[in-house]
Amino acid sequence: MSNLDQRPAPTPCGAEPRTGPVHELLAGREVPLGESTVVRRLLPSLGRRMVGAWVFVDHYGPDDIADEPGMQVPPHPHIGLQTVSWLHAGEVLHRDSLGSLQTVRPRELGLMTSGRAIAHSEESPSPHRNAPILHGAQLWVALPGEHRHTAPSFEHHTTLPVLRGGGGLSATVILGELDGAASPGTTFSPLVGADLALAAGTDTALPLTEDFEYAVLSMSGAPEIDGVPLPPGSLLYLGEGRRHLPLRSDHDAAVMLLGGVPFEEEIVMWWNFIGRSAEDIVQARADWEEGSRFGEVKGYAGDRLSAPALPPVPLKPRGRTR
């Protein structure tokens, strides 16, 4: 997934100082993506920048794309992060500069590690007869400093662990670990991403890791998370210090649980890059514009994205405090 903003501001990343459990409800801002897709951007936001190593969260759909282009994101670059593609409906065709060509379908994990440099594109396969509804989330994970220059890679996992407990809850572990179940996806810091399906009448509690901070993204329905009603397309930041999370829903609903050890490093996040200094970002932009370092995405029917102009303000690394 790309940030298509042609005037992206530098994003001072890092969470607030540790405060224990909280309830902080964030509404997404609508951002156009490609020709016809509009996403709700939850992270980064004015109120919250990171949740563990999770630094970017877009929620989109459900959209009827039967007569629309659907998702059309031209080739663009990344450094210093992982992208996570997760669908509830529809299909997304992934291409990258490693030569990967993979259709990602609902409840399958598309995981790309940019490391030192990669380029990719994403598009809704045409025609859409078999998948006319598009609904999902795109997320980024910041790579720790010791791994930010790792070799780029792409993983596609069709089988993921599912936890089925009492009370109407089914939890698919997308990334990291949850209650003893581990995703096959590669991670570089302690974290969790899970898809929680809540059947009508769910009333239960999910075990958590006390030293993680957490947030819940509402995908569909109207569940209550720790007693807080959560509208679709919103994000509830929950803080740290939790051993379990109460969940209930009168009707079928779905949410994504995101969590991890608070990310303590100072980083610079601008456009589609995460670095540790202004020089990292300036060099990555120059390399992309010059056609070096990132490789070529072959097969996409269109031009690649040009990098926007650098901002007039200095790019400074920021940590957890503002």
From TrEMBL:
GO terms for molecular function: metal ion binding. Residues 42-141 form the Pirin N-terminal domain. Its cofactor is Fe cation. Residues 194-294 form the Pirin C-terminal domain. Fe cation binds at residues 76, 78, 120, 122. Keywords: Iron, Metal-binding. The keyword Lyase does not apply. The keyword Zinc-finger does not apply. Binds 1 Fe cation per subunit. Residues 1-21, 303-322 are annotated as: Disordered. Pfam families: Pirin, Pirin_C. Belongs to the pirin family. This is Pirin domain protein. It comes from Streptomyces xiamenensis.
